[in-house]
Each structure stands twice: as structure tokens, then as C-alpha cells.
Amino acid sequence: MTAHPNSDGGFEFDHLQVALQGPLAIITLNRPDKLNALDASIWADFRTALQRLESNGTTRVIVITGAGERAFSAGGDIGGFAELVTLEQKRHFQRDAMATFAAVENCQLPVIAAVNGWALGGGCELTLACDIVIASDQARFGMPEAKIGLVPGYGVVRAPQVIGRHMTKLLVMAAEKIDAAEALRIGLVQRVVPHSRLMEEAVSLALRIAENSSLAHAVGKKLVNLGTTRGEFDYSVEALTLLQSTADTREGIAAFLEKRKPKFAEPQF
User: Fold this and answer.
1) Which candidate, 88, 165, 196, 197, has a CA 20 to 30 Å from the CA of 238?
2) DSSP characters for 97-119?
């Protein structure tokens, strides 16, 4: 999607706004009526935004947040999942999502998540891709994909390195949702602040980071991330593609859209 300039010198897409404030860029997920759900169009736009910010010569730190008071992002647009009919469409969606999380993770600029509300599914995965997470005391986190017969493809690979294997299994298998204090305790979040001061605190931290060497940030970030490999994500794309084709996932999506409890099949492995 083509970016359109906005009044403050930034730019925007259909569901994404980028504001420039000196050395800072604030990316806002902008679908508040849908709790900033991530639809298929947002992935490429997000990567385009990151590329533009990396190359503009002035941006030194990026802050990502969600529009409105209720959500950072409630995750993937489940209604949109029902429109993915063929295996290739499902695989393309998964690859697009993984490529975007990887772009955040590997961005040469420091990326701070300012989590203002619900961060579920892909929204939680987006925080895992960021370098630092600051949460409002009203923020809530979770990876509830199992409720519709899926798993968080990026989260199941990255979360064990951030919060540990067993906590990841708890969040994924039980579709557990946790508050900001618990997210801080397990290491998913680095700082919790009063809701009214979230952006003030995020911008203050970003400005302190911006005073330091961007080259040092890029090299340091790359060294910290050296332990990550892409092979696990290739497997995750294929696993999610196949899961999206199962009767369980079809039932889970239908139940979600019909606001009822899903009736999953008996285990047959």
C-alpha cells in the first residue's frame, strides 16, 4: 500500500500511522474499532515503514503503540483468517507475518513497544520482537491462539528465549492471559508505568537512548540477537499453514465469529 504524508512530516497507511518527533518515530497501529487487529494488509506496510525510518538519516529510535485506550493489538484479524482458502494463501500470510516480526527484531534502530492495553496473539508476538517493552498498568498479555486451533507461530519460537520454555507452554496451552505486573515478573515487560504516563515514559526513554551512538546500538543489537536463527521460523510457517487447514481451526474460527464455545475433535495424532 502506498504511504501518504501527514501534517507532522510523517506518513500513514490504511491501518498504520508514523509520526516523526525529532530523533524519534512513533508507529501507531490504527484500527481502534477492531482493537488494532492485524490484517493481511498491515504486514508489508509495517516493513515499508521500518525501511523508510532506517534510511531517512534522522530517526534514531522507534516507539510502537496502539490507537485508542483499549488495545495495543488484539492480534490477528480472525475474520480475515476465514478468507484464507488455499494452502498457498495461508502460507503467504504466515510468511508475511514472520517477515514483519523479523524486520522489527532485526531493525538497526532500537524499537520500544509502548503497550497501552490488550496485547494478544500477534500483538503479544510484536512485543516479543521489540527490544524493550514498557507497559501501562492496564496492559494485558496473552497468546490465546489455541482457542481457535492454532499456535502463535513467532511466539512459540521466540518466547522461550524471553520468558522460558515452561511459562511459554503455560501461556500457549492454557491460553492464559496475564496482567502487566506478571508480565514484568517473567521478563516479558521491562517497565510498568501508570496508564496516563505511558507515552511520556516511553518517549523519555527513547530520547535518552537517542543521545547515544546509533552505530553502537545497531552493533550491540546484532550481537545480542546472534543466538537467534531463522530455521525455527521456516518450520513454524509450515506448521501454521497446515494447522490453518484443519477442521479444528475451521471450527475455532467459526465459533469465534459466532460467539460460541468451539467443539474441537478428539486427539488423533
Assistant:
1) 165
2) HHHHHHHHHH-SS-EEEEE-SEE
Q: Which of 145, 176, 200, 251 is catalytic?
A: 145
For the segment 2-13, the average pLDDT, to the nearest whole number, is: 76
Query: What is the per-residue pLDDT across 153-205, written as a single tens digit (0 to 9) for each?
Result: 999 999 999 999 999 999 999 999 999 999 999 999 999 999 999 999 999 99
Residue with cell 468451539: 262
CA nearest to 168, candidates 184, 156, 177: 156
Please give the backbone phi and psi of residue 72, each rounded to the nearest 5 degrees, phi first: -70, -60
- How many CB atoms are located within 10 Å of the residue 101 CB? 23
The residues, ordered by sequence, that sit 6+ positions from 42 with a Cβ below 8 Å of its Cβ are: 13, 15, 16, 29, 100
* pLDDT at position 269: 47
Domain at 4-197+214-226, CATH homologous superfamily: 2-enoyl-CoA Hydratase; Chain A, domain 1 (3.90.226.10)
* Residue pLDDT, tens place only, 116-152: 999 999 999 999 999 999 999 999 999 999 999 999 9
At position 190, the amino acid (one-letter code) is Q
pLDDT at residue 227, as a whole number: 64
Q: Compare 69 and 228 and report the one with higher pLDDT.
A: 69
* All cell numbers assigned to 101: 516480526
* Annotated catalytic residue 258: no
Active site residue 105: no
Query: Which one from 54, 83, 88, 125 is the annotated catalytic residue?
Result: 125
